[in-house]
Amino acid sequence: MNKNILLGHGSGGKMTSDLINSVFVKYFDNDILRKKTDSAILNINAGELAFATDSYVVDPVFFPGGNIGMLAVSGTVNDLAVSGAKPLYLSAGFIIEEGFPLEQLEIICKSMKEEALKAKVLIVTGDTKVVKRGQCDKIFINTSGIGIFNKKNHEISEGKNIRVGDKLIVSGYIGDHSIAVIGARENIQFENEILSDVAPLNLLIQDVLKTGHEMKFMRDLTRGGLATVLVEMVEDKDFGIIITEEDIPVRESVNGLCEIFGYDPLYMANEGKVLFVVKANNAEEILQTIQKNEYGKDARIIGEVTSGNGGMAILESVIGGNRIIDKLAGEQLPRIC
Amino acid sequence: MNKNILLGHGSGGKMTSDLINSVFVKYFDNDILRKKTDSAILNINAGELAFATDSYVVDPVFFPGGNIGMLAVSGTVNDLAVSGAKPLYLSAGFIIEEGFPLEQLEIICKSMKEEALKAKVLIVTGDTKVVKRGQCDKIFINTSGIGIFNKKNHEISEGKNIRVGDKLIVSGYIGDHSIAVIGARENIQFENEILSDVAPLNLLIQDVLKTGHEMKFMRDLTRGGLATVLVEMVEDKDFGIIITEEDIPVRESVNGLCEIFGYDPLYMANEGKVLFVVKANNAEEILQTIQKNEYGKDARIIGEVTSGNGGMAILESVIGGNRIIDKLAGEQLPRIC
């Protein structure tokens, strides 16, 4: 087999089926995928389903702590999980630039397999397109996912039950993913390497839901970062939010890099961080549950839902004074996910 | 609003939500999408689901008879339908090149809306990424889809019940889509314009299944064309296939163009054609049912499942003599879908 991806690998003919067998089936192998039917046939015993999609175009494809394949699995798993669903099945659609090294495709697929195992999901259907050199940048991956709901968790993603007094918990340090990707892109040498936080959060979220305490709202802090999630939470609402800058977990090294580049960590994309909104009197117990999970050990309560500032998210800064958090106006950092 | 897509439209911030509201929600509007949750929440009363994904990278984006948006909806609807499922929900993931005209994005989304209406499916969740100029070619769209099964139709896509004597029906002229795209790409002036056959086939397929006659196998004739489907059907099987060249519907103009370019219509991608395999004594009745549908009026019986040539698909040519149909070896035509 050739060492690079050729246009023929996207032809739908012999080379495509060779590639499917030698790479995709090899890594993603399971009973459903192996049937190679036009659609995956799933047996789901549930009335209520979650369905999510995301395309991943991160540049560079490999970065400290992860690669585009890990992102593609974790990202969609997390979209389903923050909706309150249990992720079960993923699709994987590849758009590959002619000449892309097969070896790198294998590393990416191996990572996808490992992330899927961690998250306990199956990759059950896929598609491959190959475009000529210069018509896409290396590789783009779309994953779509299906999850099922237990009980009434499908109401979580609408956030209808958020009330004044509810507490906001962030599951750990923010900004790591963005800084890891910028570092790799700009070839920056860090004193202490900053790794992407890319991770599937569904099992952490499952642990939290298992406490039985009401979950008001969850959202993963991807593109647009914590700031965008907060602004969207209060948009057109009677309540507001106040968060305290000194309680927001940001690594010193990330803060430093942000100052140099002129970025604000609040707006930085994360790929393994989630915001929980819970009742005040459950907040401490839920925080402890989160901290027991490997992906939540640096979780903190960062603020609360407030009255008197309806429709506004406010940051109480370390140096004193408040600042209204705005929606990101333009593009801070393209191709971060 | 700016007339071209900017990087900020993919930021996840204000410009992204403006784009979502002014284009995607405008055209795809429905109760599920409007909630703008991380995952679409679907209510499905079925144990057995079909799940399919496809990325569309067709070049040019607009071609006689269609555009990339029509392809993206019809293609995935057809993947679900040939599995025997009733398509219900689609996702739409856009990767857009910076500078792409918003007006063209609107035309594409309007087409997607119209195709979805024709096929009676809803677009319920989506994603938008914008990459810098030169990092992708105009626009790529991924659609994934969910369908439900009635009865035991989920066995159709495995083709387990194919038997010697079964008849093969093709739903109409083959090669139109490929020639329409090549024509647009190479700026060829045709005497009689050849239009792409892009169309959602699920309602045609539903009509056929409603006859109650057993459906042995269905497959849409996309990348790799009729030839590839036939080769895959007989691969590792005890039975073979014989098709008769003069029974295969190919327009004269398509045949002519194929001769000029050195293409074989058997391998040309179609986007609105399906192969049915049915019992011989039901074939005529099913053919008539197909011909009553607007997308099946040129359907024909083209051959049958045979013994004595196990594992081989054979073409009886017009000029006499047989030829074994091989799998497409390389890439005939990149970016046709």
Any overview of this molecule?
2 copies of one chain form a homodimer. Chain A has helices at residues 14-28, 31-34, 68-82, 102-119, 176-186, 202-210, 225-234, 252-261, 280-292, and strands at residues 40-43, 48-56, 62-63, 66-67, 85-97, 122-131, 139-149, 167-170, 215-220, 240-244, 274-278, 300-306, 313-316, 322-324. The first copy, chain A, is α+β, with helices and mostly antiparallel strands. Chain A has 2 domains: 7-153, PurM-like, N-terminal domain (60s Ribosomal Protein L30, Chain: A, 2-Layer Sandwich); 167-325, PurM-like C-terminal domain (Phosphoribosyl-aminoimidazole Synthetase, Chain A, domain 2), CATH 3.90.650.10. In chain A, the strands form 3 sheets. A 7-stranded mixed beta sheet of chain A has the order 9-11-8-12-10-13-14. In chain A, strand 3 (62-63) and strand 4 form a beta hairpin. In chain A, helix 1 (14-28) packs parallel to helix 4 (102-119). The longest helix of chain A is centred in the N-terminal third of the chain and has 18 residues, at 102-119. The radius of gyration of chain A is 21 Å and the shape is globular. The two termini of chain A are 31 Å apart. The model of chain A has no long low-confidence stretch (mean pLDDT 93). At the A-B interface, helix 1, strand 1, strand 2, helix 3 and strand 5 of A face helix 1, strand 1, strand 2, helix 3 and strand 5 of B. Strand 2 of chain A pairs antiparallel with strand 1 of chain B.
